[in-house]
Amino acid sequence: MALTPDAPPVSVGVLREHDADERRVTLVPEVVGRLVREGFAVVVERGAGEAAFFPDAAYEAAGATLGDRSAALAADVLACVRVPDAGLALSLHRGQVVVGLLALGGHADQADALTDAGVVALDLALLPRTLSRAQTMDALTSQASVAGYRATIVAAEAFGRFFPMMITAAGTAKPAQVLVLGTGVAGLQAIGTARRLGAQVTGYDIRPSSADEVRSLGATFLRLTSSPEGAGEGGYARELTDDERAAQQTELAGHVAKFDVVITTAQVPGRRPPVLVTAETVAAMRPGSVVVDLGASDLGGNVEGSVPDERVVTPGGVTVVGAGNLASELPTAASSAYARNVAAVLRAAVRDGRLDVDVDDDVIRAIRVPAATSNPAPAEEARA
Ligand code: NAD
């Protein structure tokens, strides 16, 4: 949405992410250029894009102002990738807006600090993804897609053999057998990437609708006889009962040991990631096998014994990669997609040339924290 020429420009601050392991940046120069042409003023903390290979000079050429951290912090909107630490809220002022993949539901201290400071957050983790208007803002999807691709690359790098079948004068190598557990956005991208590398791929999910999506990528769908119907609200999976989970783990164990590479991506919104692969199942895998657990986090993961951001080789020679934040490992692509998502949110939060987070817009209303008092009803499709 173009800003009106006579209104002061809405300023957007881009910080260097505070977590040393986070290589993504919120806005990339190409998107900054577009926002500036539309009438926004963009202030970038020096070095903010360095880890994603976007130099300061590229931001300057796109029309941004480069400054120190305090200059970026003074902007009307602070755009970030992950939630700023609670201390940063002390540097913000009442009425300021923070937009990002904040996941405030899991970060109570930061959420309280922002609310106490009178700051309004636009949390992309709350985006109602089924609204077609929201698709350009869907950072969960753009980042899961990058992570799924990267998971396969990480697995291929850790695997001691080829992914494709290789016929050479020195003999024939069989293609790798890859199993992807959880075939949402990340899982389907992992399947597609493994197929392009020439592996033989199988996918499994508890949502029955995912079977056709798996097959459409040229992979086989694994059907468990014990598998419960696991579709939940809004296209997501539901949490299984203890009995269902035990039956699933037991039956999966019989399949997992036959695969060379297992990539797990299963999530249930607002719950701990389900354990799909037990330590016993990992112990039964062949030496040289690789497991990449995309669900690994401080809350646990899909694989018993996986450690977030660490690569563990078991006594049985199985490499278990706890892949917490794979999108950050492909920072240029992840940032480019994320920047487009954030720019779409910024446009939706501007009315008549002014920032307006009380705007009667179903997407903004769904991602606004705290909820707008003037219109407290959240959008029906919003995730809890
Ligand atoms: P997600 O990250 O919440 O979960 C990943 C996958 O894990 C899901 O496919 C889920 O079914 C699966 N899973 C959960 N528990 C499991 C278990 N015990 N065993 C096996 N698999 C399990 O999911 P997501 O990638 O965010 O996608 C969720 C849904 O949202 C999908 O139906 C997807 O197509 C849909 N979606 C729609 C849009 C849109 O309409 N624009 C955008 C993004 C995603």
Automatic annotation (TrEMBL):
UniProt cross-references to PANTHER family, sorted A to Z: NAD(P) TRANSHYDROGENASE, PROTON-TRANSLOCATING NAD(P)(+) TRANSHYDROGENASE
Gene3D superfamilies: NAD(P)-binding Rossmann-like Domain
Coiled-coil segments on the chain, per record: none
The protein's role, per its UniProt record: The transhydrogenation between NADH and NADP is coupled to respiration and ATP hydrolysis and functions as a proton pump across the membrane.
EC number: 7.1.1.1
Protein name: proton-translocating NAD(P)(+) transhydrogenase
GO biological process: NADPH regeneration
CDD domains listed in its UniProt record: Rubrum_tdh
Domain Alanine dehydrogenase/pyridine nucleotide transhydrogenase NAD(H)-binding residue range list: 156-322
Keywords from the UniProt entry: NAD, NADP, Nucleotide-binding, Oxidoreductase, Translocase
Transmembrane segment boundaries: none
Any one GO MF annotation of this record: proton-translocating NAD(P)+ transhydrogenase activity
Protein's organism: Luteimicrobium xylanilyticum
